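User: Can you write out an input/output pair for a complex, sequences first and structure second?

Assistant: Here is one pair. Inputs:
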Amino acid sequence: MKPLASKIDEPVRSPLTRHEGIDFDLIELIYFAYRDFTSDPDVILTDYEFGRAHHRVLHFVNRKPGLTVAELLDVLRITKQSLSRVLKQLIDSGHILQIQGTTDRRQRELYPTQKGRNLALELARPQSRRIRTALTGMTTEERAAIERFLGAMVTDGQQQAPKAVPQMHED
Amino acid sequence: MKPLASKIDEPVRSPLTRHEGIDFDLIELIYFAYRDFTSDPDVILTDYEFGRAHHRVLHFVNRKPGLTVAELLDVLRITKQSLSRVLKQLIDSGHILQIQGTTDRRQRELYPTQKGRNLALELARPQSRRIRTALTGMTTEERAAIERFLGAMVTDGQQQAPKAVPQMHED
DNA sequence: GAAATTATGTCAGCGATATTGACATAGTTT
DNA sequence: AAACTATGTCAATATCGCTGACATAATTTC
């Protein structure tokens, strides 16, 4: 007694829980966890009239000072046009400095100023606090499992060392 | 011999690793994990000319068929104006149905069609696969720890049962 | 039953962040 | 000298969020 194929445009009334072994609870949990994880810095950013894009740029420039523009584009996986406005604002506000590359003078190495370093720390503090709270009571093994899980969720091994994949030339 | 306060606008050259006990590696890992987690459905969505917003609506309507518009707004934490365009497209494309509420006829209960249910499953499949792969080799305890961690990253207990906090009236 | 409130929808405009395409300039490599 | 590379910029467009204002129908309150 399967439902007939004619039942098109009938409302489906069964809640989606488990189907084909798909864990919807976990999928949803990841969504909520990330939403709240990013909400902390978002509040601070509005005071500076910055958005999430500024946060990402600031984070990576602080993580690896001297990063070139091409490397940054590669980590963020956005276009140079998208980066330009955000980067310009961070430079104008004195959070990031551009210094001409020494070996290749076409390159612009990006460095945080002390102001930029301070803001990066200010943004990371509530996120770190949230993580620390979430990890309370966990054993070393459990913490290691969480890190392994997160690492395995990432597609490739590009995280740490951007490989300077060249930007396409527009001709 | 601390650096002098006069060193304003000097580039900060030290990479940001650990500072005040802030785990930047973990913060970054969460960013990459989520970015790649959402990239799977994003690829599928472009085929339907839908975006991430459609995905979220489709997900929650499938999770809890019969959800009212106000409940959906509460879960998503967006305004009705933001929802309207996306919801209209999902209705026009035959993925979601609106049915007048039985007790309160002002309410519109949202249900997926079979087509909408299928798309929700199609979008969840690669995400579930990624999670399953990332969990391979984990013990039951380790998996439980990961779930506890993610749950603890969420701010309140609003996840499952939306509390129908009323939308502000615009007068 | 009239008045207030609620649930939803809609129009108009705006802002942030992303995109593609095209072109310019300076510096490096061949 | 020619080709290529790193970066910057102008212009147009798309998505997804926002605020404000108003409309309609249904429900609740007085």
